[in-house]
């Protein structure tokens, strides 16, 4: 549906969701702290309304009240919430069960956590059908029908699998099938695609949009991804610090935002066409920081040659050859299961390669620090081990919840023998300042910090070993757009100040365009395209790279419904035979010059059709 068509849906028909002057508070220190203040909006039958804002804006709290969910210690202090004609806030426990069984359903952010790991997915879908009073046989048949409706392959077989045997996108489709089981009138989508790669995200969003049209669903979408909002929503409600600051049709809000906060949010979103990182001033003015070039004489610090990595009979990485120079950001991109994280974790010593070579190369005259990276971390000398460090996707789970921030940063200093007890605290405070945090936060626990602050602590901990290479695995995926922008700027500054090399893993191609110097595109364990970031994004491209770019959502509904422009890819591009790692010819690759190379493909094969 086009943006214009979607916007005409607004105000048609009966309002199925009504939120009127809603206020929510929780008790802290004997006093009420208001987290939602005077929020009002409606969603008509068949309409999708997006509620957007940064962490702490209250958007998830508002969405929770639609289902009668309130966090522990919270209470509604005013207003009214109505779903399908029912006053949600006046319902007792039985009334809420009936509401959730018949009228409203939730699709959450991480289906992998929501599904029961010890129960087959078919049984879990069947459980969602219990309120309908069907027989066991009817529930089983209906579960298969729902699995097919949400586009799961081989429905008869997949219902017999366990959640861990499904990909992230398949798990999310199971969650959608469970939500649709009782044919609700309202669907609440709380960050439904945050953890998915761009191709899987596009499939899930198309699925939700198609089912919404088919079933006439009213949807409330909670998201910090403004590209998703541009693609899906008819109207947008922008929240900040518990209040609605702007509400408008999607097209109007994205093309003519009125509130300064809305303009700041939109300006903070990276675009695929940016040739550097976006920087947003206090007035919302947007500029793009020019990418710092890597000097031609920068030495190579990591060499990967013909590496394969197996998980039992499954080959996760298949014959990858790459190099990484000092001060360079190499981005690994591809769908879930492409092998990018497996390769990066192997570099960090978490999974030794099955074959091939990985080496940390000396970049000093005395040759110190060179070592074999084919060994696991425990088998590496400490001086080699500390030179490659990991910054994880989710600082919430990678930081010990019982350990103070100072202790988390101080521990690597002591472990690697870089500071004795008397100087460790001072070094830890310096690292905390280096990641633009107030040293006063050093005495707090992780739960007392915001998501962006926790991510900076994780980066400080990775820097404590004085590494040459940092593996940054989806470090900005779960962050709000403005916090993401500040973390990316921090990484770029640290790269320049410390002459660090980064292996940057991301499924957000707009972020990759802004921060990376080179890109390696991986598919089914193999690199299919590699080159300088501008060359790869300008094309010509491997068909799989074009497919990834076609799935990128830009926060601009006027540009093809939010989809980014895609380089043209027809037949294999013209180019010379590339050189192999040993300097010979490699007929499997097309050399386009300037370090840009593309793996050859069969125009009639699956790669071109993908």
UniProtKB/TrEMBL annotation:
Region (Disordered), start-end ranges: 556-610
Keywords: ATP-binding, Nucleotide-binding, Transport
GO MF, one example: ATP hydrolysis activity
InterPro entries, per database record: AAA+_ATPase (IPR003593), ABC_transp_ATP-bind (IPR050319), ABC_transporter-like_ATP-bd (IPR003439), ABC_transporter-like_CS (IPR017871), Oligopep_ABC_C (IPR013563), P-loop_NTPase (IPR027417)
CDD domains: ABC_NikE_OppD_transporters (cd03257)
Gene3D superfamilies: P-loop containing nucleotide triphosphate hydrolases
GO terms of biological process kind: peptide transport; transmembrane transport
Domain named ABC transporter: residues: 17-266, 302-549
Keyword Nucleotide-binding listed: yes
Protein family: Belongs to the ABC transporter superfamily.
Protein name: Peptide/nickel transport system ATP-binding protein
Source organism per UniProt: Nocardiopsis metallicus
């Amino acid at each position: 549906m086009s943006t214009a068509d979607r916007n005409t849906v607004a105000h048609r028909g009966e309002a199925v969701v009504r939120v009127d002057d809603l206020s929510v508070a929780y008790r802290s220190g004997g006093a009420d702290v208001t987290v939602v203040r005077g929020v009002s909006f409606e969603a008509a039958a068949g309409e999708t309304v997006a509620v957007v804002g940064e962490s702490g804006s209250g958007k998830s709290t508002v969405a929770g009240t639609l289902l009668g969910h309130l966090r522990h210690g919270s209470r509604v202090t005013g207003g009214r919430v109505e779903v399908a004609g029912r006053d949600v806030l006046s319902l007792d426990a039985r009334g809420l069960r009936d509401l959730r069984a018949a009228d409203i359903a939730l699709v959450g952010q991480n289906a992998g956590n929501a599904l029961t790991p010890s129960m087959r997915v078919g049984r879990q879908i069947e459980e969602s059908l219990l309120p309908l009073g069907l027989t066991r046989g009817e529930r089983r048949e209906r579960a298969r029908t729902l699995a097919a409706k949400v586009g799961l392959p081989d429905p008869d077989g997949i219902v017999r699998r366990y959640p861990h045997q499904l990909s992230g996108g398949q798990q999310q489709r199971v969650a959608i099938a469970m939500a649709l089981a009782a044919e609700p009138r309202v669907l609440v989508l709380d960050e439904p695609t945050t953890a998915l790669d761009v191709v899987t995200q596009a499939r899930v969003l198309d699925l939700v949009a198609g089912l919404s049209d088919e079933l006439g669903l009213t949807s409330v979408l909670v998201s910090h991804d403004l590209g998703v909002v541009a693609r899906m929503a008819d109207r947008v409600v922008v929240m900040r610090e518990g209040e609605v600051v702007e509400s408008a049709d999607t097209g109007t809000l994205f093309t003519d935002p009125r509130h300064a906060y809305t303009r700041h949010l939109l300006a903070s979103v990276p675009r695929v066409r940016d040739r550097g990182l976006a920087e947003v001033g206090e007035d919302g003015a947007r500029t793009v920081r020019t990418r710092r070039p890597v000097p031609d004489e920068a030495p190579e610090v990591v060499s990967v040659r013909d590496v394969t990595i197996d998980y039992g009979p499954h080959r996760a990485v298949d014959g990858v050859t790459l190099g990484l120079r000092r001060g360079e950001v190499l981005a690994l991109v591809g769908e879930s299961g492409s092998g990018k994280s497996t390769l990066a974790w192997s570099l960090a010593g978490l999974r030794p390669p099955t074959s091939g070579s990985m080496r940390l190369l000396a970049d000093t005259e005395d040759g110190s620090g060179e070592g074999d990276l084919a060994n696991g971390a425990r088998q590496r000398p400490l001086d080699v081990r500390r030179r490659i460090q990991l910054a994880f996707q989710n600082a919430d789970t990678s930081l010990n919840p019982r350990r103070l921030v100072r202790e988390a940063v101080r521990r690597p200093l002591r472990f690697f023998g870089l500071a004795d007890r008397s100087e460790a605290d001072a070094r830890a405070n310096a690292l905390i300042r280096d990641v633009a945090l107030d040293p006063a936060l050093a005495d707090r626990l992780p739960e007392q910090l915001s998501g962006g602050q926790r991510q900076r602590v994780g980066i400080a901990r990775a820097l404590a070993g004085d590494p040459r290479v940092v593996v940054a695995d989806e470090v900005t995926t779960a962050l709000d757009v403005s916090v993401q922008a500040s973390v990316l700027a921090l990484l770029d500054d640290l790269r320049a100040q410390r002459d660090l090399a980064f292996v940057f893993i991301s499924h957000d191609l707009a972020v990759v365009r802004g921060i990376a110097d080179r890109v390696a595109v991986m598919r089914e364990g193999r690199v299919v395209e590699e080159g300088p970031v501008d060359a790869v994004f300008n094309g010509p491209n491997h068909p799989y790279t074009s497919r990834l770019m076609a799935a990128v959502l830009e926060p601009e509904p006027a540009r093809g419904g939010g989809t980014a422009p895609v380089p043209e890819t027809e037949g294999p591009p013209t180019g010379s035979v590339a050189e192999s790692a040993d300097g010979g010819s490699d007929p499997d690759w097309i050399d386009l010059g300037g370090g840009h190379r593309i793996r050859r493909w069969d125009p009639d094969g699956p790669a071109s059709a993908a």
